[in-house]
Amino acid sequence: MGAGIVGLACAWWLQCRGHQVLLLDPALAGDLPGDRDPGGEWRSGSRAALGLLMADSFHRDRGRAWDLRQRSLELWSRWRHELAQRGHPIPYRPGVLLLAADGAEQERLAALGEHKRALGLPLEPWDRRRLEPLLPTLPQPCLAGLHSGRDGQLDPASALAALAADGRQRGLALQRDAAVALQPERGGWRVELAGGGAERAAWVVLAAGTAASTLLKGVSGLEPGRWTLEPVLGQALELELAAPLPSEWPGTVVWRGVNLVPRPDLKGGRRLWLGATLEPGGTADPDQLSELRDLGGAAPEWLRGAQVVRHWQGLRPRPLGRPAPLLEQPAPGLLLAAGHYRNGVLLAPASAAWVAERIEAGPLGA
């Protein structure tokens, strides 16, 4: 259940491994995931994602979160290659440059780079001389940078389309409907549908954001409130620039938590995504958008003069009082893969691998 990037990744990977899979989501339109809600706004967290794959540059180097990121980075590389060979390429830009806007951030990035290089990871310090060719276009202040060569950015819409199209070619079934209730039945599950009727399955995988926690509340015998997910809204902009960015622009640039993501496949390299807002609830704050658009008053002239082509927003499910994501088995034959918060695109492959391992281990996940 759920045709965002995590749900699609789970469905595609299970189909690849020989399972019979039905993907259920009310937003499905034809063969591909739907784009907009009836009001015309982009609400899917996956559709509002920027597609950043920041694994090596993650501040930790051990534990569950680190392991998931490393596994996903390796799987995305394999998946992109396989999908491209089957006629479904996903645009990808290697490299993420983290910028230091003050002395404390400069020290933090220097320590992070030194530590990760000791682990054999290719994080390269960029001093002012290395940044010199980019300085007219970089936000200021900018004291130094840290470049992560294995991290990168892929196009979320292309990834959704590729997984759905290739999944269909492999036999994946898609159904536009919503689940309203789950009931255990004869060693499997009965899924009651909003449109009437029901589907039966040996396994159910919940990857439907906040709807997943709502469905779990209706399953008798489960601990109330254990899987609560709250919505967090993110906004982003697509800008058209008066001139292309310098050829030296190193993939995605992150400055004070704001992501500047070039779109070289559009308009001769004059398109840019700008995003980073995190807002509680489901109502967009225009002041937050204005702050993003102006980089808090630090936007360079070329960015101030850019034309806004598109504004979109999406809801990200965040676990309440629990670390993200929720990869758990609430009951035999029932899996939860939700609450990825800001890392759905990055962690989709590792989540899918976890789901497949649990299913193939048997109903009790032994």
Task: Give an account of the 3D structure.
The structure is a single chain. The model is unreliable at 34-43 (pLDDT under 50). A hairpin with a 4-residue loop joins strand 10 (188-193) and strand 11 (198-201). The protein is of the alpha+beta class and 366 residues long. Helix content is 29%, strand content 30%. The protein contains nine helices and 20 strands. The strands form five sheets. Strands 4, 5, 6, 7, 13, 14, 15, 16, 17 and 18 form a ten-stranded mixed β-sheet that branches. Strands 9-10-11 form a three-stranded antiparallel β-sheet, with no helix packed on it. The chain folds into two domains: 5-49 and 158-228 and 320-361, FAD/NAD(P)-binding domain (3-Layer(bba) Sandwich), CATH 3.50.50; 94-150 and 231-317, D-Amino Acid Oxidase, Chain A, domain 2 (2-Layer Sandwich). The chain is elongated. The relative contact order is 0.20. The two termini are 23 Å apart.
